[in-house]
Amino acid sequence: MLATLLLAGCTSTYPMMPTPVLYTGAQARSLFTGAPAEVLAPPLDLLFFTDRAPATGGNDFDPYSADRSRSMAFGSTTVLFGEGLTWDTLVRESLVFPRKHSLDLALGPTKELGRFPGIPYEVTMTERGLTRSAAVVDAHEAAVQGLQTEVSRRLASSPRKEVVLFVHGVANTFRDTALTMGELCHFLGREFVCGIFSWPAGGTRGFLFGYQVDYESSLFAAEHLRKTIRAIAETPGLERIHLIAHSRGTDVLVTAASDLNFEAYTKEATSRTATRLAT
After folding, report:
1. Rounded-to-integer distance, Cα 279 and Cα 264, Å
2. Residue 234's CB: how many other CB atoms inside 10 A?
3. Are 237 and 161 in contact (CB under 8 A)?
4. Residue 253 C-beta-side C-alpha neighbours within 13 Å
């Protein structure tokens, strides 16, 4: 039994999820009818946000580790569907139910596009008291601008001016999160700007202590998720944000959303108008 669990934990394959019932049967809905021409190719490009520390030694299997980073990065990561498939073949296989042959997903190139300053932000003493240093504020604003520029670029080619962001649970690596969101985005018709927020989970400290460390990392990540949602929400042209969370990720999300709701209240606004969260 132990050997079976160890082998399962070491597997590198990730079969694509079964075809959702929505796209099967006599009343099946059409898929990919609203997707723009530029996304009609097997590789799927995701936007990512992470406060994981980069993996050491040029790890191509997973570019980010389970260690915490005080700074949050954002960028682009690619999900690959099968090997050498054409778009027409992928569409056909996506709609087969039950699927006779496994269609494996893999993580492709990942590119970091920007990074926020490390927390806590440096402060300086002025005549009016403590304030954040000008250099840190400038670096933060530059990171926000870079993030919003990337979101705007993606919105421009998206038929739906909406972002879908996935927050994972415990024992998930960066790769796990990207592949899960890749298949979800695929079966959402590739009509949204899809992204992941990947916090430092998935360490190898055993079942008991591994969960405790992941739990503490999830608390650590709430500040960065709040920063992510706020920056996305303030992007010109965005109409709505959809948030999906699993397991411990729901607590990270609820904490960030609660803090944003409090911020909105102090500004005499509502969280829905301030953050464009879908209801």
Report:
1. 16
2. 15
3. yes
4. 19
Residues 6+ positions from 197 with CB-CB distance below 8 Å: 48, 49, 50, 165, 166, 167, 221, 224, 225, 228
Q: How, if at all, do strands 123-126 and 105-115 pair?
A: unpaired
Omega before 98 within 30 of 0, i.e. cis: yes
Tell me the per-residue pLDDT of 193-223, one tens digit each, with 9 for 90 and over: 999 999 999 877 655 667 889 999 999 999 9
Among the listed residues 181, 188, 46, the one whose alpha carbon sits nearest the alpha carbon of residue 110: 46
Residues 6+ apart with CB under 8 A from 123: 130, 131, 132, 133
Q: How many beta carbons lie within 10 A of that of residue 127, not counting itself?
A: 4
pLDDT tens digits, one per residue of 256-273: 999 998 888 787 665 555
Share of the chain above pLDDT 90, in %: 72
In one-letter notation, the amino acid at residue 114 is G
Contact 120, 113 (CB under 8 A): no
DSSP states along 198-224? E-S----S-HHHHHHHHHHHHHHHHHH
